[in-house]
User: What shape does this take?
Amino acid sequence: MALSVELGDEISVETNTRVRALEFLIQQKGLEGVVETVPSFRSLLVYYDPGRVGYETLCAALGALAEQASTAVLPPARLVELPCCYDPELGPDLEAAAQRLGMTPDELIRLHSSAEYLVYFVGFTPGLPYMAGVPERIQLPRLTTPRVKVPAGSVGLGGAQFCIYSVDSPGGYWLLGRTPVRLYDPESVEPTLLRAGDRVRMRPVDRAEYDAILARVEARVYRPVIA
Amino acid sequence: MIRVTDPGPQTTVQDLGRVGHLRSGIPPSGPVDVRAFVIANRLVGNPDNAAGLECTVLGPRFTVEQACAIAVTGAEAPVTVNDEPAAQWATLELARGASVRIGAARAGVRIYVAFSGGLDVPAALGSRATYLRGRLGGLEGRSLRRGDVLTRLSAPAPPLARRLAAAQIPALEKEPEIRVVLGPQADRFTAEGLAAFLSSPYQMLPQSDRMGARLSGPRITHSRGHDIVSDGIALGAIQVPGDGQPIVLLVDRQSTGGYTKVATVGSFDIGRIGQVKPGQPVRFRAVEVAEAHRLRRQWVQALAEAAGGAVAA
Assistant: This one.
């Protein structure tokens, strides 16, 4: 059984921070009967065992914790640096996106890679981060016709959202480049890399470095920089 | 060892699933019809969580290289052992070299096969359940292929041969009534849309899978748009995209999504909707939260008593 705690209506860093803070408080308190939690933009889905906690009791406990849920309670965020290659072969929409934004591809790359992004939550497919922090100057509406297949690692822009595809899947975001790092690796002991609340930066790499990192990723000897 | 001579269209290794990874986008997986799965395990003396097979529409053919016990439950399908008909919902003692064939489901969709000791595949994130889209768990994260060899964990003692009482075998109804709790976005639909949802039959579509059961019927009309800010998707959540057709999200569901959800199927009815064949109708009936809790307690109680087992933790 599950119940959804809604902390706002909109997509904002402030609301999402309260969602993550509520999840953190639930983990810290070890709230009786809670089985698992799923944060998203503005709400927290709480799976619970009704054999261990009553619906009314849980609602009251969550309501009380929601009052305390603010940035102050969260531990410091991790900073994850991901290499990103903006080669046109790996980022087929870079040129068109830059043209539409009235800037050069280099300017788009500079703006995209100098921003710091916040992982609102990870979901939809395994390890896929929904991220905030796209500079206003590079925000674009989504593609009118989504692609049937976007390769894993593709770095995509859509509106104020930024995502990195974690598995090959359909997608409607503008593809600017690709990271050789695997956000989801089912053969790893910890299959997913990013977590809600992480801060992410993209480090531009050329094709040669991309290929070198990819080879190390495939040999399972590459570790991304996490501070 | 179990040698798979014909896997059937989609046969996967499952246990009761992995908990705690939806927040990373990884669903629980596990059997769609938990009750049938657990009873199969109990009939061969296994703990409820032991790994077994979930087969879809058509069962596998396999041979066992050591004597063991199996039980076949779930959808109604012909079972033969060395070409002799054998019973479902019963302990089947297999001699070394026995060859088992499970045919096409006559009623229901998902057939379960438990093996004494349980199947031995490596656990991934604490579970042996297969998550096909994520290529995680089970046998190399995939469904079985011809020629696969599965091993069993050692069974503590040979199980007592048992047969489930006829009254305890779940009925596979022609038009099951599925109980739902309305919400979380029921207010995003018109009164006519909600009335259609709760009064008309909806047909199961063949595109349905372990991620979601897709249904077709009278349009469940939205009052103000079909998109929401993406949020978490509970087991049994019924998404209604712009076409007004319901999708019931199951064990391999996406963790979050951006379509309005009209209602949620009670966990006690997930197995029932999971046994509805393509083309077969279902009806939805709304119950209050308190009633859903009562129905769940009843379901847990019935399962505890079925095949004389204890309830899974």
The mean pLDDT of chain A is 94.
